[in-house]
Amino acid sequence: MVxxxxxxxxxRKGSTSSSSSSSSSAPADPLSSMLDGTDPxxxxxxxxxxxxxxxxxxxxxxxxxxxxxxxxxEPIGADFExxxxxxxxxxxxxxxxxxLSINLFMGSDRGKAPNPGTSAVSEKVRTRxxxxxxxxxxxxxxxxxxxxxxYANRIEELNQSLKEAWSSDQKVKAxxxxxxxxxxxxxxxxxxFYPSKFVLITDILxxxxxxxxxxxxxxxxxxxxxxxxFTAEDVNDTAKETCLNWFFKIASIRELLPRLYVEAAIxxxxxxxxxxxxxxxxxxxxxxxxxxxxxLVAAYARAYLCRVGMEVAxxxxxxxxxxxxxxxxTFRQVxxxxxxxxLHLQRVEAPEYLTLxxxxxxxxxxxxxxxxxxxxxxxxxxxxxxMVNNALLLNSIMRAFRPEFVxxxxxxxxxxxxxxxxxxxxxxxxxxxxxxSLACADPPESERLTILNEAWKVITKVRNPQDxxxxxxxxxxxxxxxxxxxxxxxxxxxIIKHMTPDRAFEDAYPQLQxxxxxxxxxxxxxSVLFSMERFLPFLDMFQKDSVRVEVCKSIMEVFIKHQLEVxxxxxxxxAMLHICKTMHDSVNALTLEDxxxxxxxxxxxxxxxxxxxxxxxxxLSFCVEARATFCNLEPVLVQLIHTVNQLxxxxxxxxxxxxxxxxxxxxxxxxxxxxxxxxSLSSIFSRLHLxxxxxxxxxxxxxxxxxxxxxxxxxxxxxxVPRSISVEGKLRSSETFLLDxxxxxxxxxxxxxxxxxxxxxxxxxxxxxxxxxxxxxxxxDAKVRVYISALPLLAAMSQETYLYSIPKVxxxxxxxxxxxxxxxxxxxxxxxxxxxxxxxxKTLTRDEQSVRRQSALxxxxxxxxxxxxxxxxxxxxxxxxxxxxLSHKHGHCETRVSVRTLESIKHQAQQPDMAHLADAxxxxxxxxxx
Amino acid sequence: MSVTLDIKxxxxxxxxxxxxxxxxxxxxxxxxxxxxxxxxxxxEGIVNLQLSSKSVGVFEAFYNSVKPIQLISHNIEVAKAGKxxxxxxxxxxxxxxxxxxxxxxxxxxxxxxxNIQYSLRCDLKRSLLAKDLSRNCEFIVHCQPQKAKVxxxxxxxxxxxxxxxxxxxxxxxxKFLIRGHLDATSxxxxxxxxxxxxxxxxxxxxxSIELQLVRVETCGCAxxxxxxxxxxxxxxxxxxxVCHGLPIPIYxxxxxxxxxxxxxxxxxxxxx
Lengths: 930, 272
Hints:
- The complex is a heterodimer of chains A (930) and B (272).
- By secondary structure, chain A is mainly α.
- Helices cover 65% and strands 2% of the residues of chain A.
- Chain A is elongated.
- Chain A: Keywords: Endosome, Protein transport, Transport.
């Protein structure tokens, strides 16, 4: 008879029965006993009249929740940390290498209509056949030996097939998938993975909940979309009926866990049915969780319910509280026999097992603590205090409650942590949680030292270096925040002591780095920082190159940002040199340009902050040392040269230009430093500019031979300048840079006196020779431009007094004193140059392009002659008129420029001694365009 | 030349009470105009009784099916022979839901031995060449809710090894004590069954606590009465070794189609 009944039942409503292989749990047939006349209920009814209900209905949670009734409905604000942020954290934290299995009973569609063709076959036979079919279909799929990743993939596949089933209108299949998935949550084999499994599976449930909600939503927004704040009255009958059907279907799921989870998943849909639906369902589901025997499964079910509750009805705090109180009520089960047996079987230690609860309990408490009044939190805390083995709860309280709340009671918490059972939840985790709260909020001032002492007393006893480090890292922040370098130093010493044996630091680089970061956040005074004895030894623990450089960089960044005054503190200098050297030494052939640049910038930042005040020699010797240390980073060398040049100029300023023997020797030493440093640079323009600059500095300091050497060196490397250089990664012609440099150089040459042993205008000739021999680009006027710009120099040199001079340096004006031989030498040079320029102009006649260039060059030569030439000389005046005409011959001159030039000449002509210009103007005709 | 025939009821949930009007439309859709020999619509309410093979033996059960009892029967001609135009045609209809003669309209119920079913049937007769079309549509009848407010009578229960019946070796059983209460002994069918159960103590860990909903059907026939109890649904309320001393809720929604209020008539009885 039993078989018959079963079959019939299966045929009718197999679609909702989650397990197709429904087996009656009762060993004997309880039904037949019912027929014997003695109905057990009526029996009980008779017996129980005297026994009053000692079992209070609402359990222990009700009254408190009601007292704390929230006045107004408040939605969740942005300050509520959403589940999505916890998700990844849990997945990353709870992993396993054990093999997992998924057990699914799928694919058997017992619910499909019986085939009319087989009506002749007896029902029993048909059942058998169906069973056989099912076996063939592999309705019960058990996937064994899955790695964690496989498992996650499987779940994701299920998620996909859920969506597919839904979109292809196979609602029943979708529901089956969801039921099967939530059933997986009752399986606690490989318990370490359970939190992650929970995350994966509740994702599916969320998807399902959303699908159902959206479906019903679209059903009732047929004529027009529902407003967000709709009530049940706005929902049409069909939608209501569909919604109701879902709830009925779910109510008939046989197993407890799927029934619970799936109903929670679609809880939001209650809105379609009635206003109070959610309000009534939440407490019912909360109570239902009591039926879950495994405390871990129950805790996570509660977490899910709280999560759904916060999402759909954040104003209903009571059921959150009820959940927590139920959790407390069943908490003793954690140490119960069943659990212990399971742990023994899976070889999981109690502390590890207890940490599995943290995400769930943290979440529940976070939901409760969100915008909760202080009083409630205190009460919660008191309740937890009374529990046995409450470390786990304590931990969650410290994690979930407001840091301010925890901080003001820090001493209490320490007391409670002390009272905890050592064998249960690891204490370092408790101190870790406490430290995390104290890092954000301040405990009362008077208690701070005691707190630190108490905490550190425990932390220092943690054996496992990883655990120790995790905890110590958190407490460093508290220490830095409230205490001086002495305490921080002690902490650092302790960390070193723990992490050095067996090179434990190698596995803890992230935490160690975070320690450094925290210290740097609070200590900006580097003299204090480096006077901590243990700071540098601490840095020595970073032995992996990449990490080491990273740490050094972070220190340097803070230094540059916060060190506002130059320093000569030997402690800082030593330490910083050490750090910079570490960074510098990390540079090798494989280092990227960007990386080099950023390292160089940091080191330069340091060098700029070093100053020994009036002790120039010390500064120079620092630069010497720095040069030796940072020889691989060119920008640093460049900076050093600048520093030394600045030093020389500073010396000059101090002695007010009158060098004593000692200072003269010093500035020569500076020049020597630059002279031997510059060649080691690879960038040609850096070298050129630095030679020129150093030459100028040497000249200013009356070091004539040094200046000569610099300038000569500059001239001698001119031929090495490549035709194109790369600027910001792009190849560009070097011509403009070179022209700029030469012009600058020419201007300096005016004041450089000739070397007594070399001929007249030795440097100028040298430069011009180099320019002539240089392989300029084809079709370029650069050479001629240099010639044109050399003319003003020569003109200036032939003056009786020079336009500018350097104090205490005799320029050529005094050396030659306007000697006619010198002047004729200059004249000869001018003639040669002008001849060269004119020759070049003659070649520029081939096409439009060159004619244009010819015009421009001619005009600029005209300008030079006008400005610097003596136009009283007829030949010169004739030449300039010719040049004017040449430049205007093809109409490539800008009329505006021409007009203004003419005006300025007219203006000049009115001045005394300039009357000869008036003649010239007569002959300069403006080109008529019209 | 295909044609589809459908019956649509006005109420989405298809639930009607006695005295109300069952209203709806017959939808016909075909591509082109179609000849027919008349459309008729009938409403029927039938109680089907079947004898359990356990009570009367296999052969008797097979032959001695008790005659169905008709509770309601209406027949109307919707359209005379003629033509329906192409496209979609909707023909509205209404039936008063009144019992036939002195019969009572029982609630719709799908049981094992007793079936109470109400349906609408639409027939479309066609010429010899084309097959006749027909369409069935079940609707559900619920009794009017009781006027008098039922005062729930809570009942407490205790289960120990001693209270169990049909156990052979009582001494082999582990010791346990389970208490609990149901909020009412007679429930309103539209409301869930509620109560609590507390495991006070149990020597062995509990695997599962399940709640079984059972129906008792009694059919009368020539040889007397046949009484059978069968399971309707089974719901797990606790899984695993639950916390002792903590009340676990009992909660079950009655599956409406497969349950009905306790019913006693001359020919058959249904109880839960």
